[in-house]
Amino acid sequence: MDDREVHPLTAARRVRGLSQTALAARVRQAAARRGLRSGCDRPRIRKWERDTVPDAESQAYLAEALGLPADAALAHSWPHWLPRTPDGVLPLTPHSAVPALREALISVERRTFLTLSGAGLTGLAGQWASALPTEAPVGAADAPDTDDLLGILRASVDRLTTADPAHTRHTTRLLNAHLATVTDMLEAGSHHPATLQRLHTLAADLAHTLAWRHFDHGAHPLATRHWMAALHSTHALGDTDRGAGIISDLAYQAAWRQDHPLAQDLLTHALSRARHPAARSLLHLRLARSLAAAPTPARGAALRALHAAEHDLARAGTDRPSWCAWMSEADLAVDTGQTLLDLGDTRPAHQLLAQGDHLLPATRDKTRSIFLAYQAAGHLAHRDLERAAHAATTALELARRTRAPRCEQLVQRLTPAFRPHARNDTVARHLQLVDA
Question: What is the pTM (predicted TM-score) of this model?
Fold first, then answer.
């Protein structure tokens, strides 16, 4: 192997945040789980990362230590069966949840991020779309009872998630600590089957919540890693609707960053396995938005996606997955309006944006801030400065009150369009608030 090329084992180890010593310990643990012993240590790992070929038994231990199926080592010769994932996108396997969670946790600690490629994310979504149905997590029937601790963790997570946004910095730190605890418990193994399922569910909930918080604060690579960790945990549960929702969130992030080809690829994969009408409605709606906002809008495809979103929401009923229970007529109206606005259909777009704002309950002020920012952009496009400035001012006030930097950023994007009209009283008041 060329000395300038990183050995696949080195890449796989680094992606998981493992030192050579830590990987050697995992190899010994894999052997111990089989009632055997391994003399693996740091020097041996170092040899394997150079020219020495581990025997078949050691390769099976290595696969398990890296969160891969033990028979992965049988697929190809050494070292070609090792996943080459220097971008941190871990392959989806029945045993990949803990490595993915560890990667998200380690990323928080080191505050530096490997580049996450769009191709890697598309590949992960494609792997998820073509994966065979996953069996429910299998545990140990004679495992110690941890229901009390899990109950405490669940109650704490629920309270922290719904705490006042003023405490977001503190609650995020605590949620991250809970995720580390749940990951430790998953890695320890030996749980009742029902307990194992609850642990994976809690891990997915925590990673999902933290992903949105990091996204709201502009920490995009960190948000992506937490969404990927949530996808791995959800895959372990066999919950394809929620998996589709997580991939849809990754697509939302891509569209937010103006990467519409990536957003559309991810949503296409997500729709291939989403089953619940509420889930499909949300996915179709996000696809319509991305198709319309692309540099070359796909008008026909966007309108078909809007029609599908409306049709699916009409048959969704009230029994919906918790992650998309909020999906409502208000969301449909506003996102349809924004899609039509991007397509140039301004009159119906403004009507739908106003309708969505009227339908949205007061409990969703962060969403209302985003809706009003969309309205402001639409009014600006029509040179209606008074209404644009009024909507933007209300949106900015809501964003700051709900501690939502992402929503504030959306309003701030409109500021250059307002600056030339600073003599207008309403615009001047808005710019004063922006600069405060």
Answer: 0.77
Model confidence pLDDT, tens digit, residues 270-323: 999 999 999 999 999 999 999 999 999 999 999 999 999 999 999 998 889 888
Using an 8 Å Cβ cutoff, are 343 and 320 in contact?
no
Alpha-carbon distance of 39 to 114, in angstroms, equals 32
| pLDDT of the residue at 137 | 60
* Token pair for 272: 């291939």
Q: Which of 31, 25, 73, 32 is nearest to 53 (CA)?
A: 73
Contact criterion met (CB below 8 Å) for 143 and 190: yes
- For 59-73, 379-393, 404-418, which range has the lowest pLDDT when averaged over its residues? 59-73
List of long-range contacts for 58-65, beta carbons under 8 Å, 24+ apart: 58/27, 60/30, 61/27, 61/30, 61/31, 62/9, 62/23, 62/27, 62/30, 64/26, 64/30, 64/33, 64/95, 65/23, 65/26, 65/27, 65/29, 65/30
pLDDT (mean) for 29-45: 93
Own/partner pairs, 347-350, CB within 8 angstroms, 24+ separation: 349/378, 350/375, 350/378, 350/379, 350/382
User: Considering the domain 8-86 in this protein, what is its CATH number?
Assistant: 1.10.260
Q: What's the CA gap between 15 and 17, in Å, rounded?
A: 5
The ranges assigned to domains in the chain are 8-86, 96-275
Q: Please tell me the predicted confidence (pLDDT) of residue 90.
A: 79
CB atoms within 10 A of CB 405: 15
Q: Name the H helices within 3-79.
A: 8-15, 20-32, 42-48, 56-65
For the chain, the straight-line distance linking the first and the last C-alpha, in angstroms and rounded, comes to 59
